[in-house]
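Put briefly, the fold is written as integer tokens. One such record reads:
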Amino acid sequence: MILQPLAICRFPIIVYLVFFSTVLSPPLLSAQWSEAGAPEIRNVRPADYQGGGLNYAIAQDSLGLIYVANESGVLVYDGVQWELIRLPDNGAAHSLCYA
């Protein structure tokens, strides 16, 4: 009979611990998530780079410039602005070669 009242007294404590651990654990776990080392992914529309809507190839040089083979020519992105290099006869660039 002594153990029964003791078990009844522990029940609310266990319920509170379980309740608060489930309520508080998601924010604590999300604070542990780190995106360090994850690549930055950004969607860019053709209106942003003033080129065509089809991109065929992408390359990056040692300086960090990004080159995109596009239906309007070759796009060059320096991290801030886009530059369109038009090909003869306004042809499309279907591939890139970085040496």
Remarks:
- The CA atoms of residues 56 and 94 lie 5 Å apart.
